[in-house]
Design a protein that fits this description.
alpha+beta, Cathepsin B, Chain A, 22% strand, globular
């Protein structure tokens, strides 16, 4: 089949796939009003314990820096989820050589971040350290080597979403799903952008939230660019929009947010 008929079939197939993904994405999330009528369930990870000790460098802010670790924000945010779900730290065990730690990290990140957490007995054991933060501080070169490169995160097929406008309803759905996941004790990786302004095309991990003034939901986030303290991404329930209230090196203002790495398709 060639020509216009083929284009129609491909177009209809693409539309069907998009609709199926959209329905699947919002099928289980409760209304946002329900999510904001009860207190937050508590953080789904511990900042400074379950997060990396090193940062993702911002390239333009570090001209001439030797061994710059830049453009790894997607790798690092995804890695936090993977360690949380698939690794177990055993400080009572003897430490091993850096080469062995590299292989252990590779094993952890070989699993897809949307997979169910492993039971303790099946997790990758990281000997000699009590937490991801302690481990990544002491074995920074090995951890970075094990995490791998960033090329595939650049061409991850859902990144195209940052190039298009979104509706208030779409952004409300992201907020609603994020609330539902956090209330269930699961962190959420968000793709955040303020394109066409060339400032923010980034990812963070939402792990807690608070509600203030009855209108704003402030998601507490781990930002790979800032290992020292949490950041914030807020959702305005009235305007149905996200804004950067505390994203590292980003001017406060309206942004767009999308969920990442929560299924084989998204």
């Amino acid at each position: 089949m060639t020509g216009p008929p083929l284009k129609r079939v491909v177009g209809q197939l693409g539309l069907s796939v998009c609709l199926a993904l959209a329905v699947a994405a919002c099928a289980s999330a409760p209304p946002i009003e329900r999510g904001t009528t009860r207190p937050a369930a508590g953080p789904s990870l511990r900042f400074g314990v379950d997060t990396f000790a090193f940062r993702n460098d911002i390239r333009w802010k570090n001209p001439g820096k030797v061994d710059m670790y830049a453009n790894y924000c997607f790798v690092m945010a995804r890695g936090v989820t993977q360690f949380y779900r698939f690794a177990r730290f055993a400080p009572e065990l003897p430490r091993v050589e850096p080469s062995a730690y590299i292989e252990l990290v590779k094993e952890v990140v070989s699993r897809s971040p949307w997979e169910e957490p492993l039971p303790a007995a099946e997790r990758v054991v990281i000997p000699g350290y009590a937490s991801l933060h302690e481990f990544s501080a002491a074995q920074e070169p090995a951890v970075k080597a094990g995490l791998g490169g960033f090329f595939w995160t650049f061409i991850q097929w859902t990144n195209w979403r940052v190039a298009f406008p979104v509706t208030g309803g779409q952004q409300e759905r992201v907020a609603r799903e994020t609330l539902a996941e956090l209330d269930a004790g699961r962190m959420v990786q968000l793709l955040v952008t303020n394109l066409p302004k060339v400032e923010l095309n980034h990812t963070v991990i939402a792990y807690d939230y608070r509600i203030y003034e009855g209108r704003f939901i402030e998601f507490v986030v781990y930002d790979p660019n800032e290992p020292e303290e949490p950041g914030w991404v807020a959702f305005d329930r009235a305007d149905r929009s996200f804004f950067a209230s505390g994203v590292y090196d980003t001017e406060p203002g309206t942004i767009r947010a999308f969920r990442m790495y929560y299924s084989p398709f998204l």
